[in-house]
Each structure stands twice: as C-alpha cells, then as structure tokens.
Design goal:
- This protein is 42% helix and 21% strand.
- With 182 residues, the protein is of the alpha/beta class.
- The strands form two sheets. Strands 1, 2, 3, 4, 5 and 6 form a six-stranded mixed sheet that branches.
C-alpha cells in the first residue's frame, strides 16, 4: 500500500502537518510519498491520498484546488482524506471550515475533512500580510495540536490497514493471489 500525502502551504506550517501525518503512517508500516501538489502529475501507483491546504481569506490555496481539478477522476477511485490548517488563537478561530471544503468533499468523495489550528509567525509574513495581521489583531504563535494531528493520522492508518486485511482475506478465500486486482 502506498499513500500520497500532499499539502499546499504558504509559509510551511501546513506542510509540517503533512510531514507529521507521514511520520505516523510510516511508523505503522505504510509506505508514503510526501510532496507539494504542484509536483503531482497523476495518481498512478497510489492507493490512497491525504490532501491538505492552508486557509487564506477563507479559501484553500490555488495549488490544492488545482490538484483536485487535475486529478479529480483518479481521486474518486481511491480513499481520500482532506485537512485544512489556518485557525489561530486560543481558542482557535474561526472554528468552521471554509465553504470550499464542502465543495472539495463532494468533488473528491473524500471520507473526511479535519480542520487543524495553524501557526502565524510575524517574521514569515510579507508586508501586506503583516499589515492585515495588525488590522485584524491576529495573534501570533503556533496553535497546532500535534496530539490531534497524530491521532487523526493513526485513525487513517488503522482504517487503511483494516481495509487491506479485508481485501487480502477475500483474495485468499477466492483463491486469488494476495494483491491481485489491486
């Protein structure tokens, strides 16, 4: 089993979440590939996909949206999980996922979406972003919960492993070699 983990990021925080997910899946023996959406031409060779995006101005970043458009039919033929990062503060706000998430869930047939708190470091921002941060009084800091991220990744790993075990058992009962038709 091979899982593609890809995340659109502006300042690296969302990609760090994707990397944490990759570590958990790898620790369970699941093979992964971690990359940015722009580097994925197709989904050949991947059995499942975990796709994430940072949220800016209430929307997913263009590379994540373009990835979905480019690979839509392939996404609909395999297990997909989505995540977003961006809410900041304690408690993190906003608490709801942006409207685009519902569109992405429907388009991809994803099993689930998770909204994770993000990180905002003034030193990483451009002039316009710093001005916006000041105007809206956005709090600076790292608000990500690594326990939540790791627990979600472990849930995905267990689901994938259970489904693979069921496929293997069905293949053994039918006399097919394990892995046939996958």
């Amino acid at each position: 089993m091979k899982v593609l983990i890809t995340a659109a990021t502006r300042h690296g925080s969302t990609f760090e979440i994707a990397s944490g997910i990759e570590e958990v899946l790898n620790s369970t023996g699941i093979e992964t590939v971690l990359t940015v959406p722009e580097r994925v031409a197709d989904l050949n060779g991947y059995d499942a996909v975990i796709l994430g995006s940072a949220i800016y101005a209430g929307n997913w970043l263009a590379p994540a949206r373009e990835f979905v458009a480019r690979t839509l039919w392939a996404l609909r033929t395999r297990p997909v999980w989505l995540f977003s990062s961006g809410p900041i503060g304690d408690p993190a706000k906003p608490t709801e996922a942006p409207a685009v998430v519902a569109e992405m869930l429907e388009a991809t047939g994803a099993r689930e979406h998770r909204l994770f708190a993000g990180r905002l470091e003034r030193r990483d921002l451009g002039l316009t972003e710093k001005a916006i941060m000041t105007v809206i009084r956005a709090p600076e800091g790292d608000f990500r919960s690594w326990n939540q991220i790791e627990a979600w990744a472990m849930q995905i790993a267990r689901t994938l492993q259970a489904e693979q075990a069921i496929r293997q058992a069905a293949g053994q009962e039918s006399g097919q070699p394990v892995g046939a038709g996958q």
